[in-house]
């Protein structure tokens, strides 16, 4: 073991660190540098998409760079439930995004001279961790490797609380509860000095994809969008909001009964102009106009420049869909809503720690960008805990790239990196079981 | 507040005056249940009793069949909503690109070592991995990741780690209870405290400071124990159902999304009004049989 220690001597550490937050929807990748800013991070679709229209298959970054028509795309995703399950497709995407000649210049790296910091969601099955470790060392041949919980990376990102003193790069925040509202699910992770309190991590199985799929179902009641994953994802991003008064909002948009018709509130209902991927590249919402003749619009009569407009009217779907984060029972999911899930995490800790975590809740992940999310979360939490408790909830400045940014800042501290990194030589000498124990914090170093 | 009832900001649906099984052909007027009852006990197929009281004008067998079918329908829907891949896209072939070693075509299977060949060729889904892990926990009582490092390496370690830390880690790892867990019975996460370990670092806490447990800060040893607690399994980490006393699940009109106030006796769908009922009868009903 003494020899072991010398392996961790700084000279054995590759100078380059690739930080890869491998999300189910997009992967966030960038080489860490002293001025690690979010704009050093590339956001790449983590999927293989097949177009039914041009019969092309797009791998990862090709989708945003080369595809013009996002209609009827079928998606194959290597990440399932947040974990890398299918390495055949993930390898193709990594190669196309990071490793091969077509990859952006500032991302290209020689794995033999690079340390990989790879994010992972909590509660991973051990076999999937083993697969990741073997692929990283045996297939890609990285010189160093740290597999870190994504929320733990987030604890190295700057604090979004204005009053909290900013810690220098490489130092985690002291007490932090990271709510990661991602594509697959939403996890709640309490961390103490950057170390996760494993027994208190919880997962609500509602994420961005649940919302997109539910949106698809609801819109398809009037207009079939079952094959339009991409479009519905954009509609969700454009129109959804979390209601602060669900019952009242639902009343406002009801059309009424046969004998007491009502006029739905025009401030909620929107007309969504669908993209045709020719003149309209991306759909957009505008206030609902009940006088619009849909047939004329579709024929290009009375539209801007005579273009054909296909319009989808969206009402209660705007807030009924994201409501699933707060009331999962609306689709029969037997799990508590997000505020209560957060309290399940906190209440599993000693009472004296409750306040510290309640006052330091940081929200990350793309789904947290939905308008009203933060306000509703804070208000519901506030109503659920004693009034003498301080509740503070903040959204990371860049919720999508927060874990990446944290990883890039972690990489600036050699001392912190040595604690979490395993070298290829460690792996060859000690085997994958030892490596997994290091990442689980079971083997001190 | 340790674990008070879930308080929703929204009141639950109130009963309509027209509730009591006024018969309309094909419909029963449904008494939308109030907030009483324990929803945690009503999940799954065990909510038949509640369903039974809320349906009028049908035989017991019809109601049982309907509610069982509805339950299957809900489970199918949740599966669909949680799906990661587009339908039939899981097997989408991956085209080869210049400068990459992936994709078919070559004589050799992709993968540089036996391990990675196996991983790359694996068609396993997440559900397979989860089943494998649960089976392993039942068989061996633990996950291999929970095993402590081989003893010789622990013994040979230069003592960089303070003794009391190592002690706690060994204790917490040794006490990983071989306790098979299933999705249905989720044990509360164990909090390893210094009091329950038998090592030399047991902290003696003066009796009077225990009077208010909530004010006593955790000792360093307790914190270390918390930090070294083994990760929960995938199934253990799942958010628990709403606490008892939470409002009953809300029902929505399946035509327009407003409150569901009327249940179709043929298929169990909810609608809000006569207008939506007409639409349902004309276009959507019996879809479940299709
Ligand atoms: Zn309706
Ligand atoms: Zn029906």
SSE topology:
The complex is a heterodimer of chains A (445) and B (290).
Chain A (H helix, E strand, L loop, with lengths): L1 H6 L8 E7 L3 E6 L10 E4 L2 E4 L5 E3 L2 H5 L6 E4 L2 E2 L2 E2 L2 H13 L14 E7 L5 H14 L4 E6 H5 L20 E7 L4 E7 L2 E2 L5 E3 L3 H12 L9 H11 L6 H7 L17 E4 L10 E4 L6 H6 L11 E4 L2 H4 L17 H10 L3 H8 L2 E4 L8 H12 L8 E3 L6 H9 L3 H7 L1 E2 H16 L6
Parallel strand pairs in A: 1-9, 9-10, 11-18, 18-19
Antiparallel strand pairs in A: 1-2, 2-3, 4-5, 4-6, 7-8, 10-20, 11-12, 12-13, 12-14, 15-16, 15-17
Helix pairs in contact in A: 4-16, 6-7, 11-13
Chain B lengths: L26 E3 L9 H4 L5 H7 L5 H22 L32 H8 L4 H15 L10 H6 L6 H12 L45 H8 L34 E3 L5 E2 L2 H11 L6
The structure holds zinc ion (2 copies).
Oligomer: heterodimer
- Give the overall form of chain A: globular
Please, how many helices of chain A?
A: 16
Number of strands of chain A: 20
Q: Order of strands side by side in the largest beta sheet of chain B?
A: 1-2-3
| Name of the CATH homologous superfamily of the largest domain in chain A | ATPase, nucleotide binding domain
Give the ligands present: zinc ion
Gyration radius of chain B, rounded: 28 Å
Work out the strand percent of chain A. 15-25%
User: Any idea what the CATH architecture of the largest domain in chain A is?
Assistant: 2-Layer Sandwich
> Largest sheet of chain B at a glance?
3 strands, antiparallel
CATH class of the largest domain in chain A: Alpha Beta
Give the mean pLDDT of chain A. 92
Weakly predicted, low-confidence segments of chain B: 1-56, 102-107, 148-211
Overall residue-averaged pLDDT value of chain B: 64
